[in-house]
Amino acid sequence: MKTLIILAHPNLAQSTVNRRWLAELAKHPEHYTVHKLYEAYPSGKIDVAREQALVEAHDNLVFQFPVYWFNCPPLLKQWFDDVLAYGWAYGSKGKALAGRKTGIAVSLGAPAADYTAQGSVGHTVAEALRPFELSLRYCNADWQPPFAFHTIDSNAGYDAAAEQLVAQSAADYLAHLQKYFG
Predict the structure, then answer these.
(1) In CATH, what number is assigned to the domain containing residue 163?
(2) 5 pairs with which residues across the strands?
(3) Residue 24 pLDDT more than 80?
(4) Which end of the chain has less Cβ packing within 10 Å, N or C?
(5) Which Gene3D superfamilies does the UniProt record give (predicted)?
(6) Which run of H or of E encompasses 34?
(7) What dihedral angle (degrees, nearest 10) is formed by the CA atoms of 55, 59, 67, 122?
(8) E strands along 57-127, which residues?
(9) How many structural domains comprise the chain?
């Protein structure tokens, strides 16, 4: 069972967390294919047929991205709009995602306490990002629980303690993928 990780990070060179996750995934090429959307489509024009073939060549599908205003970066939104087409992903003949395990792995720039009923967001990560679950379930995909890492405070600096948290998040991410995606 091979999992396609669709990475949507518009500034990967500046990312501490997503780059560390990629380094961990790279150790397991027999299980994970990482597809970097912003690298593949610097002009923003998505090759729909190529993307659909890539999805069809994998058993599972995970969208990895930093959360921007309770959503994904713009190119991933465009990917959803363009690639998950009627007749391929949904509709009476759209069965490409039917039964395929899918999920999201996100990094958030706010503490976990903010993503509670009592926190500043007032909702959990799963509740805030529910449109991804709804979209994929609409395509009859087998939705799996999201993986979320509440990132280090970039204003506080990156020290040994922060480095340890990021390293642990990479190990936790891999364990999550193994548990839910085989």
Answers:
(1) 3.40.50.360
(2) 34, 62
(3) yes
(4) N
(5) 3.40.50.360
(6) strand 32-36
(7) 130
(8) 60-66, 101-108
(9) 1
Bigger pLDDT: 14 vs 43 = 43
Largest separation between any pair of C-alpha atoms in the chain = 53
Alpha carbon 85 to its chain's center: 19
Smallest Cα–Cα separation from 145: which of 159, 130, 167? 130
Which segment of 16-20, 73-77, 148-152, 155-159 scores lowest on mean pLDDT?
155-159
The answer to whether 34 touches 7, Cβ cutoff 8 Å, is yes
Reduced to 3 states (helix: H, G, I; strand: E, B; else coil), residue 101 is strand
The pairing of beta strand 142-143 with beta strand 101-108:
parallel
Q: Which two tokens mark 140?
A: 């009859």
- Counting residues of the chain whose pLDDT is more than 90, the rounded percentage is 88
Number of residues in the chain:
182
Two structure tokens written together for 137? 């379930």
Q: How far apart are CA 73 and CA 88, in angstroms?
A: 23
Whether residue 54 contacts residue 95, with contact meaning beta carbons closer than 8 Å, is answered with no
Tokens 């991804």 sit on residue: 132
44 is written with which tokens? 């923003």
Decide: 107 and 17 in contact? Cβ < 8 Å: yes
The domain in which residue 167 lies consists of 3-181
| pLDDT of the residue at 109 | 86
Output the six-digit token pair for 142: 């087998």
pTM above threshold 0.85:
yes
